[in-house]
Amino acid sequence: MASCPLSFHPPCTLTVQWEHHGEPVCHPCVSLQEDAEPRMGRPRSLRFNSLFSEDEFGEEHPNAAPANGGSSWSDRDLSLHPSAPDTFPGSSPSTLSDSMEGTSATTPLSPTIRAGWLDKNPPQGSYIYQKRWVKLDADYLRYFDSEKDTYSKRLIPVSSISRVSSIGDQKFEVVTNNRNFVFRAENDADRNEWIRTLQEIAEERKGKAPERTLMSLATDSATELANKSGFLELRGFKHKLFVVVSEDKVFLYKNAEDYQLGIGITYIEMNVGNVKEVDRRGFDLTTPYRIFSFSADSEQEKEEWVEAMQQSITEALSNSEVAERIWAVESNRFCADCGSPKPDWASINLCVVICKRCAGEHRGLGPGITKVRSLKMDRKVWTEELIELFQQFGNMMANQFWAANVPPSEAISPSSGSQERRRFLIAKYREGKYRHYHPLFGNQEELNRALCAAVTTSDLAETQALLFCGASVTCDTGDPQCPTPLALAERSGQRLQMEFLLHNKTSEPPRLEMVCSEEKPYSVHLPSITHNGFLYKTPSMVKPISERKGPEEFSRRWCTLQDGVLSYYENNRNTVPNGEIRVEEIVCLVNNPLHAHGIESTFEVYTEADRLYLFGLESPDSAREWLKSIAKSFVHPCAEGLLALDFERLGRLHYKGGLTLEHAQEGWFALVGSTLHVCSEDGCRQEPLQLRKLQELSIQGDHEVLVLVERRRTLYIQGERKLDFLGWVHAIQKAAGSSGDTLSEQQLTESDVPLLVDRCIDYITQCGLTSEGIYRKSGQNSKTTSLLEALQRDARRVRLKEGEHQVDDVANTLKRFFRDLGDGLFTRRWAPDWLWATALEDEEAKVGEYRQLLAALPPVNRATLKALINHLFRIQCFSGENQMTTHNLAIVFGPTLFQTDGKDYKAGRVVEDLISHYVEIFNVNDQEMKKQQDEITAIMKMREASSSGTQQAGDFICTVYLEEKKTETEQHVKIPATMTAEELTFEILDRRKIVMKEKDYWSCFEVNEREEAERPLHYSEKVLPILHCLGTESYLVVKKQMSMENMLIYLASRVGDCKHGMMKFREERNLLGLGLSTGFHDRYFILSHSWLRLYKEVRVSPAFPFPFFTHVTITGTVPLLPSLPICWGFTVFYENEKHEKQQWYLCCDTQADLREWFATFLQVQNGGSLWPLEHPKMRVAQPQQDARLGNISLIPLRGNESEMRNSVAAFATDPLTLLRNV
């Protein structure tokens, strides 16, 4: 095994079969079936001991004969032995009774009547009984593995018990409607007491009126109460389950027959549930105890299930008391706007009860018009006064004012669409189009005086009419003691008047002029912007502007922006416009650079009709005012934050991004310099994209999709309108390129190093570390010039390849870049200070001065200097082969970096000091140095293999397997020095056209067959050093990391960054002096971000405190240790300062503890990063592979020359065909 971060061992004896879903199905040895009826025994198999618990797998023994004539799904005990509530998604049957018991946290069960230990007859009919802790209450007979267990193994409704009888030998039988259960007590007295108690409870239930328990639904009543029922797939189950959504619960049944009998598996309390769509047919029901991953037969069916479960959650969280009291008024039982029955929303300032669909449109009007609240969920807002206000007011009184003049042709009904509702509600409440006008309407003073008089009475209708016809709720009453109408109402004891006034303190009176265009597709009111003045304009165009427009091509026009229309006239005296542009048709606004055309300041307007309008002004300030006014008029309020930016380009586009790539959404984009700002349609402002740091920028499809890849985030911008899309493409491509000769204007890597510098350093590191006279010898001037131009034009497109590019040409390119760099690497401001520091005689003081000067450099300069000096430090490590010592490198790079003529020795002295004191000046730790050394060692091994002829020059070939080691799953991959585990995973999945879904945590694993160990590689680990450390029994495999989701959930919910607890400990070599190498002992461990401590006991000082481990590998149970006490174990490897390796075996009490320790170790070792912040997504399409031999996929060729030619031809037609036949 390579000495790398973390791994675990599966046991050597394991029976696993792969089902059609691609998920492993395990056969645990101790999860025995417990049917009432005896059957033939089955051979035992071993339990799967890894990070994965049983509930991640399907049914055990799927080929066993069904019991009682049932389905092939066996009626075994449905339980796990959970010590912690967190389990993996996709629970198997063994998890379901856990959830049932877990619901007791919110729905207390009846008090326990009797509890104690009983032996229970196992399902195979064996005479070996199993001890169970049995509890009886008024509703259920339940049994557990122990009295400490939270989750029962079986729940038998008392109402289903028909008979309890003795059958001898301390045994008794519980007979239910469809099966029998046999128990055995310790003695006859105990048995008789159980029989007597069970009979009494059963008879008591029979004597009462039939009651419907949670798990025994009568056929008819269950059917009536079901909101939705049907079959769903549940991850971990081989067969579909029958699922019922009923009021505030979701019930799970083995099949429809059990549903009719009322015998279920479990139910889920939806007041702790949350529903989330996962993919086209899948969705998750998440609770604090489980994540149930369901899959429906179709997308439409999935949407129906999600909606039903969301309604169930709403029902569970709701309080119907308020709704029932308000519905007591006849008119409140129907929506005030469309007439839908049982409306459960309300506008608390308008005092109208409305349905859910109208409530959505009410929210679009804004809180100044209507304040929407739920009758069932917003419990705190519903004071006694507000409820009474709705009871006295009612929809009838409200509509006598608001809907007094509604024409039948404009009224809406329950079946009306969203646009109809929006149009009607805008007219009704924002414009007040249908209201009953008060006689004093238009006379503000009289309205205010009448309001002051009305609030002292109980006439709420009069107060409503006055207030929404213009009376001010804060008007001056003229009474010093009661200066406002609210104070008058309080003095008069009018509680309901006070409540009405309080909810309308910020309400806006209806105004007809507030209406915007009915064709506007937004439900939120857009501001009305007014602007006018003369503009220069060219005729509209249907093609991009490809050349500069002269002043003679512009015509002076009078332009107005008013009521959502940009109009242009022949002059300011004309009343008929030459043309108009409706603001809702504008899709993009472009601010051109000064003097881009014959008019000093110009801007472009793009419309949905794919037309381009060019306007201009001689005054930049005036042009900026026009830009801001137009932008405010067409940008949706959700993206108003973009208006504050000094944008070059602003508009709306359709895009795909994030975790869901199925459907495109509309977003607002603003280009500012080399930064692209994005705001989604729901108003969420995303992290800006730094275009110069893009890892990929390409156009896919028929020039219809622009792909931007930055820091594991991929954005797909779709081109619906050709003219507008081409403009965005050219603008983004230009912004993503190098724009000047300073470092900050270059294309950059994620670490702020110019991509040009990174490309050259990477190539020389791989191909030129031992090249004699590197950087001293000059390359060909013509090749250097052309290579530098290509890299400065677009470094992303340049791939330096051995054979095509010479090492000296690349080295010369790097030197010329730094010599011609604008402002220099050390900057003109700080370069003299760097040279002055060389005069300091005290080395420690000199290093300190260098560190201060380094901190003063701009971030890009600082990162570039560190990358370059790190590279030169590597070069001088091979001075025996390349003859380039630190001094020689300083002679070459001193004048280059300081851009001098070479006569000043101080420049070379600075470079020499930086290389010599590289570790101290740049604060490089031991771990980083070792990582660099491993990379160099790997590269040198690759070079040696290349020179010996065992490998094609420049290629390091590795065999990687997909999911398991089989000939048909092997993939031959070229591994460059910079390839990470994440990139290798993407490469393998892309070759097999496997799309990574939201919860698919695909990872690369290092597997050691001899030790039967496997270690998941961290996504940022470099692959090449690991390959050179692999033994002959080791290989790499790409597969799903099943435990990752639960580890991420644990880390996200954990309080603090420290992990501590008891574990069993054993040391392979007794280096700690604790005498523990012969067996396992309980020890207390504390793991933090800087150290791991071991204590003999919880309350004593550490037995062996030591600094944080340098190399740790966590494995699973080592099968060669027969003394291992429990199955949940892992191994830690520690290397001290003397390079002595120690190996500890640690065991946890539960699988959950193992997972938590494993996640904490991973987090600490990788600086808190366990998985990329944004879930990685496979890109839709990859660039076409180069047709040359060095870039085609490698395939195994066997046989004679003719057979090999046939193999290549077959591979070109269908690569998988060849691999299947290997």
TrEMBL record:
Q: Which residue ranges are recorded for the region named Disordered?
A: 57-117
| Domain Arf-GAP, first and last residues per copy | 320-445
Which keywords belong to this entry?
Answer: Cytoplasm, GTPase activation, Metal-binding, Phosphoprotein, Repeat, Zinc, Zinc-finger
List the record's Gene Ontology CC terms alphabetically: plasma membrane; trans-Golgi network
What GO annotations for molecular function exist for this entry? GTPase activator activity; phosphatidylinositol-3,4,5-trisphosphate binding; zinc ion binding
What processes in GO biological process is this protein linked to?
A: regulation of cell shape; signal transduction
- Residue ranges annotated as compositionally biased, kind Polar residues, are 89-110
Query: Which InterPro entries does UniProt cross-reference here?
Result: Arf-Rho-GAP_ANK-PH_domain, ARFGAP/RecO, ArfGAP_dom, ArfGAP_dom_sf, PH-like_dom_sf, PH_domain, RA_dom, Rho_GTPase_activation_prot
Rho-GAP domain ranges (all copies)? 741-922
Where does the Ras-associating domain start and stop, copy by copy?
A: 954-1043
- Domain called PH: residue spans: 111-203, 225-314, 528-635, 646-737
Superkingdom of this protein's organism: Eukaryota
| Annotated compartments | Cytoplasm
Name assigned to this protein:
ArfGAP with RhoGAP domain, ankyrin repeat and PH domain 1
Query: Which species is this UniProt entry from?
Result: Cyanistes caeruleus
